[in-house]
Amino acid sequence: MNRLYHALQLKRLHQLKQIGFRYVPLVEKKTAPAATLPDDLKALEQIVSQCQLCALSKTRTKTVFGEGNPHAALMFVGEGPGAQEDMTGRPFVGRAGELLTKMIENVLEIPRSEVYIANIVKCRPPNNRVPTPEEAYTCLPYLQKQMELVAPRIVVALGATAYHYLTGDKSGITKVRGEVIDMGVYRLVPTYHPSYLLRNPSAKKEVYQDLLKIKGML
Fold first, then answer.
1. What is the 3-state secondary structure (H, E, C) of 15-63?
2. Of 28, 79, 113, 169, whose CB count within 10 A is highest?
3. Share of the chain above pLDDT 90, in %
4. 119 - beta bridge partners?
5. Domains and their CATH numbers in the chain
6. Is the pLDDT reported for residue 55 higher than 80?
7. Measured on CA atoms in the order 62, 47, 143, 32, is the torsion positive or negative?
8. 138-173: buried (b, 16+ CB within 10 Å) or exposed (e) per residue?
9. What burial class does residue 205 get, using C-beta atoms within 10 Å of its C-beta: 0-12 exposed, 13-18 middle, 19+ buried?
């Protein structure tokens, strides 16, 4: 959590320097940024919609906060919004989103509306590139607060980027896919991102196995 605090502080210092302020020593706070965010999803979404903390805010059309059951037992976390998500403000509504919906409803046999879906970053990275560490760590407190408020029992990390920023582990998704990782207040299951499945249909069998494991856990 200290890394998240430091990332935000460095950004604020840089912004102050650009408008003529000089750096001065700061007393480090022990409270993580997420602790200062509201204990209400609607209020948190309003804050996210106005966020200007990273460069992605300059190129977005809409922020993509997340959606679903605010008390879901199961939460999916992806990398970041794509073009259609940026236009609509909703997560996973493009081709990858259609596939994710089928995964949820056909394999887990629950409505998509009964899970919660969010991303590591709330704004679309240009050309759908991977979020930079600065972008991800700046945005991560929003996701952590969402997870705290939704309080899912199981979180599915969709792809390597989501897995890395949720755990700090840089292992490849192929290596960790399908593992059940105890994160204390929830269990994490990494699997392939739906966009990867669109490019590599043969991997759907492995994701199907992961989903059956998750279904059993539920």
1. HHHHCCCCCCCCCCCCCCHHHHCCCCHHHHHHHHHCCCCCHHHHCCCCC
2. 79
3. 83
4. 78
5. 1-34 (no CATH), 37-217 (3.40.470.10)
6. yes
7. positive
8. bbbbbbbbbbebbebebbbbbbbbbbbbbeeeeeeb
9. exposed
Cβ atoms 85, 63 nearer than 8 A:
no
User: Residues 152, 144: contact at Cβ < 8 Å?
Assistant: no
- In angstroms, rounded to a whole number, what is the distance separating the alpha carbons of residues 143 and 32? 13
Local structure of 101: helix, strand or coil: helix
pLDDT single digits (tens) 200-212: 999 999 999 999 9
Quote the CA–CA distance of 86 and 89 in Å, as a whole number. Answer: 5
**pLDDT attached to residue 26:** 35
- Which pLDDT value is given to residue 5? 53
Q: How many residues does the chain have?
A: 218
Q: Enter the pTM of the model.
A: 0.83
Q: Both tokens of residue 91?
A: 């997560």
Instruction: Give residue 11's Cα distance to chain centre.
Output: 21
Mean pLDDT of the chain: 89
